[in-house]
Protein: Fumarylpyruvate hydrolase
Organism: Paraburkholderia sediminicola
Amino acid sequence: MHIEFALSTPTIPIQGGDSVFPVRRIYCVGRNYAAHAREMGFDPNREPPFFFCKPADSIVNVPTGTTVEVPYPPKTSEYHHEIELVVAIGRAGNDIAVEDALTYVFGYAVGLDMTRRDLQLALRDKGRPWELGKAFDQSAPIAPLHRASEVGHIDHGALWVKVNGEDRQRTDLSKLIWSVPEIIANLSTYFELQPGDLIYTGTPEGVGPVHRGDIMTGGITGLGELSVKVR
C-alpha cells in the first residue's frame, strides 16, 4: 500500500513583519518558581532543573489583539492554566556555557502550558511519564515572538494571567529559580539545541482550573499579551 503524507511544520509569527519561526521541539521546565513548587507539594530548594516535552504541533498561535479558542480536552476534569515566558533558540549548540547562553536566543514570547492536572498528578504519583497530562493537542498557546535584538534579553518584569478578568497568577520573572542562561546551559548537556527549539521556562504560583467559556488573558512586560477562550 502506498500512502502519501502532507505534513507541515508548525510556525509562530514573528512580531513586526511577515516572517515566521518554524518550531522543531518544545522543551518545558518543571517547578521553576519557589512558590509554585510549594503549592505542588515540593521543596523549592535549588536542585538541578528537570524537563518534559510537548509535541511541536501542540502550538496554538494567538495573534496580537485577538482571542483564540481552544477546546476543553477529553479525559480530564481539571484543565489548568500555566502562564510562562517562552524562549526561542536561534542557533545550534550543545554543552553551552552559561555565560554564552544568551547568544543562542532568537527571541521571547508569552505562552500557556495547558495541563490536564488530574492526569498529571495521577501519573506522577505512579512514577510514570507526564505526557497524557501535558503533551495533548492544542496544549501550547503562544503569542507572536519578539526578536531579542529588538526587545533585549528578558530577565525581569511582570508575568501574569487573568481568568474572566480576575487575577490568577502574577509574579516577576526575576523570581525564576533557574535563569534563562542556566536553563539553556543545563538543557544543552542533554540535547543538542537547534534553531526552532522552544523552551517554556516554568510557571509561578496560582495555577488553577478553567472551564468552558472562560477567557484567559496573560502577558509579560515588554512582550505584550495573549487571549485564549476555552471552547
In short: The CA atoms of residues 102 and 153 lie 8 Å apart. The first helix runs from residue 34 to 39.
